[in-house]
Design brief:
Number of helices of chain B: 0
Radius of gyration of chain A: 13 Å
Mean pLDDT of chain A: 96
Shape of chain A: globular
Order of helices and strands of chain B: EEEEEEEEEE
Structural class of chain B: mainly beta
Largest sheet of chain B: 6 strands, mixed
Number of helices of chain A: 0
Helix content of chain A: under 10%
Low-confidence stretches of chain A: none
Distance between the termini of chain A: 35 Å
Strand content of chain A: 35-45%
Shape of chain B: globular
Low-confidence stretches of chain B: none
Oligomer: heterodimer
Chain lengths: 110, 121
């Protein structure tokens, strides 16, 4: 089972918006409303930013939003801030009691 | 508040075994399952499998069968990951992470801080 496909890197300037894509298949991303997104700073544990495609946990900034179309999920960060610079991972239920992660995307705030 | 506190870093020789612990607090341990996730140095996250904390039934992802064992001690709200016959390629940070379901694994919500296992002679 291959990892979900994410761009290796994205960048943006402070105040701008960026979108990170996460492409799977009709067997995982496209079949279930169970895509989550995680932010990971160097040396730290991942932090949940979006769950069930587009829901935001309590305490997560509303600058973070999730969406999905077909087999591709997306994370959008608006009003980029320096502290948003991190690695971002998508994750989906993939059927047959399995879970799959994306390869990760490094976000650079210019 | 929900917390998953993992045991400290380990340095092991090739061929040895290691047991990583993950102690839960802030919620009822047996009402949420747990994922185990591996992150090799400089690499992405890799799902290893999950364990139903009510039944103790583990499920292992492809590539994590045989040398990897998930177990529980519900009396102390703790999950364990044991890896035997360690190889250099097992060097990684291992995370436990809570799942808001007992019926099937899902992307997790809360994560432990991670345990670095280094395998080197």
């Amino acid at each position: 089972q291959s990892a979900l496909t994410q761009p290796a890197s994205v960048s943006g300037s402070p105040g701008q918006s960026i979108t990170i894509s996460c492409t799977g298949t009709s067997s995982d991303v496209g079949s279930y409303n169970l895509v989550s997104w995680y932010q990971q700073h160097p040396g730290k544990a991942p932090k949940l930013m979006i769950y069930e495609d587009n829901k935001r946990p309590s305490g997560v900034s509303n600058r973070f939003s999730g969406s999905k179309s077909g087999n591709t999920a997306s994370l959008t960060i608006s009003g980029l801030q320096a502290e948003d610079e991190a690695d971002y991972y998508c994750c989906s239920y993939a059927g047959s009691s399995t879970v799959i992660f994306g390869g990760g995307t490094k976000l650079t705030v210019l | 508040q929900v917390q998953l506190v993992q045991s400290g870093s380990e340095l092991k020789m090739p061929g040895a075994s290691v047991k990583v612990s993950c102690k839960a607090s802030g919620y009822t341990f047996t009402t949420y399952a747990l994922n185990w996730v591996r992150q090799a140095p400089g690499q992405g996250l890799e799902w290893m499998g999950w364990i139903n904390t009510n039944t103790g039934n583990p499920t292992y992802a492809q590539g994590f069968t045989g040398r990897f064992v998930f177990s529980l001690d519900t009396s102390v709200s703790t999950a364990y990951l044991q890896i035997s016959s360690l190889k250099a390629e097992d060097t990684a940070v291992y995370y436990c992470a809570r799942i808001t379901s007992m019926l099937r694994p899902k992307p997790p919500d809360y994560w432990g801080q991670g345990t670095l296992v280094t395998v080197s002679s």
